[in-house]
Design goal:
By secondary structure, the chain is of the alpha+beta class. It has ten helices and five strands; from the N terminus they run ααααααααβαββαββ. The radius of gyration is 37 Å and the shape is elongated.
């Protein structure tokens, strides 16, 4: 995976080199057929063609150099239409990078110089009419290419987003299935095993009360029942578990690595949190950062954890595209967040901010989850 950017850069360099070679060869060959071509003319052609190699890093500079060199060449040598090839390519590339106004202006400058080489006004119009059509096509095709590239990038982003959404849905379904299995096991086994263990315990107690010898099989049933209950509780705990895989600080680091501008602020005296409360804080920050990455756009996000004497306040705010006039519809993430907070006896407020962006504010009692 790490070699892909290098391969892409090398491919672009080779493509740029091929463009320079092809355009340069065509214009130089065309000029060589004209016996009146001078060394100065060849210099203009070489400069205008060689400048194309830098169109990715400095498109406006390339457009200026190619236009000035091309105009100087046609004014000095009075060539045919093929002498405009370097300028034509520069106009197309500049338009493709979004500089359509500059591309149109450069086209006008070059066509003006080309028209000035005509002996008469009629011949000047005839010489530049067809060439002007080609320059219009260069600007239009450049814009079309830019739009097509934007469409491809958008399609790729949508595909990546759809893939991530499918993964999240699969994880959510897996969690729901674990809970369903846990409930089924609890309902079908716990009651029956408890009854067996209870009856075995009563039989052992009565036998000892009468002074009778307790049958070994009865003691084995009692012990096996207790062991089965312990193993069943452990199994149900594994099925029900939803332990986080890190900390809010780690979530912030991951979000920054993904390109999201996130700031983490922790105030108050940090303390160890009960597992359910720690899980809830992690999931609130995780869901808030996920929503900010998906819906806020190029926004800045602030994550704040404020430890008080009796409560922990969690606040995640962004300055993105959300607005009070367009409140979002709560999805599964916000609904699940609210359920977690409510189950721990806390409060949750979510919604767009007056100044723009979205805010998630949760207040959780520090003693929440100790008995969960």
């Amino acid at each position: 995976m790490s070699g892909h950017p290098v391969d892409s850069a090398l491919t672009q360099r080779l493509a740029d080199l091929a463009l320079v070679v092809v355009v340069g060869a065509l214009v130089v060959a065309s000029a060589a057929l004209d016996a009146d071509t001078t060394a100065l003319d060849f210099g203009f052609l070489v400069v205008s063609a060689a400048a194309l190699a830098f169109h990715r890093t400095a498109p406006l500079v390339v457009l200026t150099v190619a236009t000035v060199s091309g105009a100087a060449y046609v004014l000095h040598a009075h060539p045919g239409p093929l002498g405009a090839l370097s300028v034509f390519a520069a106009v197309h590339l500049a338009s493709q990078r979004g500089y359509r106004g500059w591309a149109a202006g450069a086209s006008g400058v070059f066509l003006g110089a080309y028209a000035a080489t005509g002996p008469t006004a009629q011949e000047a119009v005839e010489k530049t009419a067809l060439l002007a059509g080609w320059f219009v096509c260069a600007v239009v095709t450049g814009l079309a290419g830019r739009n097509w590239q934007a469409y491809l990038r958008q399609t790729e982003q949508r595909a990546l987003e759809a893939e991530r959404t499918r993964e999240e849905a699969a994880l959510r379904r897996a969690g729901e299935e674990r809970l369903r299995i846990a409930r089924e096991l609890h309902d079908s086994l716990t009651h029956s095993i408890s009854i067996v263990k209870l009856q075995a315990g009563v039989a052992v107690h009565l036998a000892r009360k009468r002074g009778e010898e307790v049958p070994p099989a009865l003691l084995a049933i009692q012990e096996a029942g207790g062991e089965a209950m312990r193993e069943l509780r452990a199994t149900l705990e594994v099925l029900r578990t939803d332990e986080p895989t890190g900390t809010p600080a780690l979530l912030v680091q991951r979000a920054r690595a993904a390109g999201l501008a996130v700031e983490l602020c922790v105030t108050g005296e940090e303390c160890a949190l009960p597992a359910p409360l720690d899980r809830a804080v992690y999931r609130i920050v995780q869901e808030s950062l996920t929503n900010a990455a998906r819906h806020a756009g190029p926004a800045k996000v602030r994550v704040e954890l404020a430890y008080g004497e009796d409560a922990l306040a969690v606040r995640v705010e962004d300055d993105g595209a959300a607005h009070p006039a367009r409140p979002p519809r709560p999805g599964h993430g916000l609904t699940g967040m609210r359920e977690r907070v409510t189950a721990l006896g806390g409060t949750l407020h979510t919604g767009p901010r007056e100044e723009g962006g979205f805010s998630v504010r949760a207040e959780l009692p520090l003693g929440a989850g100790e008995l969960a």
